[in-house]
């Protein structure tokens, strides 16, 4: 148990790093993933920005990012990370590849929840004389809000997992701590402690997300 | 006046181009309730949607008043749509907005002020009888209540035209009646032109003054509802009317009959009673009523009787001739 007492500062630091990574990339996911998802959805057949070429290209780009294993993406994006943050080490640098992955991932979830909206509701707003921007603002976003929140929850939890891999390029975080102490140094108790901490974190995120989605859901 | 001129609409499908509407012309008077009836897939929904340009015709023009709406785009198109209300078979309400907010949305889209909305929405909810449900969400409402919200929403921007896309097809009989009553009430009180599509003649019968029958993308017959019911010309209209009037005698009963079976239709101006009793006095043929009903279409009666005539063949023929001269329709359906 001595291990654990010594661990407290490390664990605190690791948690802060994880929060940093997940926070930054989740913010990016919301900021860019929602517009991207909206873009893919509204350029699809039968919708107001219908454009086959643009739709296929953006869908394909998202698929490429989604099909590259995250560890590889992490390495591939190192030059980009260097340009963006001036370094490739630390939680902020690790947030760059995490954000790229999260945006692509969340965009698909956004698109999926937009697809859940009854086309009739979109038609009704069209018949009321709504402009495309009004439809997005007053209809698509609020109507898909429960789905968007659930998607964000899934993305956040995925990011907690991905952020462990960020340790490979010196990103830090809880996952990294678990690997370094628990795996490399055979300190099983440290590993168990961090895993429990992660379980609590993931459960917390899931519950918060479920609660928020439920509040918005009246179906 | 709504004027549809030589409108054709095409859909691109996997198997090529299909003509959903073929060269349709109609004109609908201000303030009337006009019905479009036909089987599903006949093109009535598509035709209805050309009146607010949700479907753009490949050919033809659609006029609302003097404006050719096929030329409208952008802001002008949206402004036109705000003056054409629409209600739907599946209501198409937003699930994340309550009743008040669903109605208010139409006004928000039209750029009305919050102040104006706060006055207007309660009025509309009172009109459709849903004042108490303002804060309920659509999932807490019955089908009829949802359609009432749809109606309130469609009226929010004081439309001149109300398009009704199978408004009662998802509702039970009782609710159908109350929704149709509400639509008629709105038509009368505000003078809004109502264009309603339905696959059920019963709906047309109860509120439409005039009706167009569609089949395969074409309008095959246009007449007053009374005219369609009393003297349908096209086979499709006949079939729809026959189905709606539902005055069929089972085949096994027919074949067990002696003599002839005739169907007699008489309209408001023909008094049948003396015709029948005179026929009975004049001829020795036995006249037996085996089925009959009186329907009221737009307030006017149509009487239908199925008679069994028994006696000598030549005398039966004389009776039929006699009835033919004195009733709207006399047709031999058996024997």
Count structural domains of chain B: 2
What is the CATH topology assignment of the domain at 21-172 in chain A?
A: MetI-like fold
Characterize the overall form of chain B: elongated
Report the biggest beta sheet of chain A as strand number plus sense, adding barrel if it closes.
none
How many strands, what sense, and barrel or not for the largest sheet of chain B?
Answer: 6 strands, mixed
Form type of chain A = elongated
The CATH first-level class of the domain at 21-172 in chain A comes to Mainly Alpha
**What would you report as the Rg of chain A, rounded to the nearest angstrom?**
20 Å
Q: Please tally the helical runs of chain B, counting DSSP H or I stretches of 4 or more residues.
A: 12
CATH class identity of the largest domain in chain B:
Alpha Beta
Range of strand content of chain A: under 5%
Please tell me the overall pLDDT of chain A: 89
Low-confidence stretches of chain B: none
The termini of chain B sit apart by: 49 Å
Count every beta strand of chain B, where a strand is a DSSP E run of 2 or more residues: 14
The fraction of residues assigned to DSSP E strands of chain B is 25-35%
- Strand pairing plus helix content of chain B: what structural class? alpha/beta
Tell me what the CATH architecture of the domain at 21-172 in chain A is: Orthogonal Bundle
Number of strands of chain A: 0
H-E order of chain B: EEEHEEHEHHHEHEHEEHHHEHEEHE
Order of helices and strands of chain A: HHHHHHHHH
């Amino acid at each position: 148990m001595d291990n654990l007492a010594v661990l407290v500062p490390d664990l605190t630091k690791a948690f802060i790093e994880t929060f940093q990574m997940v926070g930054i990339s989740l913010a990016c996911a919301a900021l860019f993933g929602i517009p991207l998802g909206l873009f893919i959805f509204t350029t699809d057949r039968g919708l107001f920005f219908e454009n086959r070429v643009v739709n296929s290209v953006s869908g394909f780009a998202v698929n490429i990012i989604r099909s590259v294993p995250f560890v590889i993406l992490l390495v591939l994006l190192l030059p980009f990370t260097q340009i963006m943050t001036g370094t490739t080490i630390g939680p902020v640098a690790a947030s760059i590849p995490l954000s790229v992955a999260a945006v692509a991932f969340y965009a698909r979830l956004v698109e999926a929840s937009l697809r859940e909206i009854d086309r009739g509701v979109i038609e009704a707003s069209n018949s009321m004389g709504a402009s495309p921007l009004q439809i997005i603002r007053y209809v698509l976003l609020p109507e898909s809000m429960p789905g968007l929140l659930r998607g964000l929850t899934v993305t956040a939890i995925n990011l907690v997992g991905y952020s462990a891999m960020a340790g490979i390029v010196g990103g830090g975080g809880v996952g990294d701590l678990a690997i370094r102490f628990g795996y490399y140094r055979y300190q099983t108790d440290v590993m168990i402690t961090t895993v429990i901490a992660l379980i609590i974190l993931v459960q917390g995120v899931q519950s918060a997300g479920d609660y928020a989605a439920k509040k918005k859901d009246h179906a | 006046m709504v004027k549809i001129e030589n409108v054709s609409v095409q859909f691109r499908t996997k198997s090529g181009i299909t003509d959903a509407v073929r060269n349709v012309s109609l004109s609908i008077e201000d303030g009337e309730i006009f019905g479009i009836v036909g089987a599903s897939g006949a093109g009535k929904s598509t035709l209805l949607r050309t009146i607010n340009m949700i479907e753009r015709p490949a050919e033809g023009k659609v006029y609302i008043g003097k404006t050719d709406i096929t030329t409208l785009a952008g802001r002008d198109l949206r402004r036109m749509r705000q003056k054409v209300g629409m209600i739907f078979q599946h209501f198409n309400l937003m699930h994340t907005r309550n009743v008040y907010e669903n109605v208010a949305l139409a006004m928000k889209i039209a750029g009305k002020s919050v102040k104006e909305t706060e006055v207007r929405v309660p009025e509309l909810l009172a009109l459709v009888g849903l004042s108490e449900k303002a804060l309920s969400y659509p999932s807490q409402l019955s089908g009829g209540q949802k359609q009432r919200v749809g109606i309130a929403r469609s009226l929010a921007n004081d439309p001149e035209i109300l398009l009704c896309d199978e408004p009662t097809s998802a509702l039970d009989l009782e609710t159908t009646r109350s929704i149709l009553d509400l639509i008629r009430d709105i038509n009368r009180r505000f003078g809004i032109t109502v264009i309603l599509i339905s696959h059920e003649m019963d709906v047309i019968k109860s509120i439409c003054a005039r009706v167009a029958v569609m089949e395969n993308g074409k309008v095959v017959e246009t007449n007053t509802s009374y005219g369609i019911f009393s003297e349908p010309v096209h086979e499709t209209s006949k079939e729809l009317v026959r189905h709606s009037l539902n005055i069929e005698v089972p085949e096994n009963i027919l074949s067990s009959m002696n003599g002839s079976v005739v169907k007699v239709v008489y309209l408001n101006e023909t008094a049948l009673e003396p015709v029948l009793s005179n026929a009975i006095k004049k001829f020795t043929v036995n006249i037996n009523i085996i089925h009959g009903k009186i329907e009221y279409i737009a307030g006017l009666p149509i009487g239908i009787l199925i008679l069994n005539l028994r006696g000598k063949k030549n005398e039966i023929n004389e009776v039929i001739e006699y009835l033919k001269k004195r009733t709207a329709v006399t047709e031999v359906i058996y024997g």
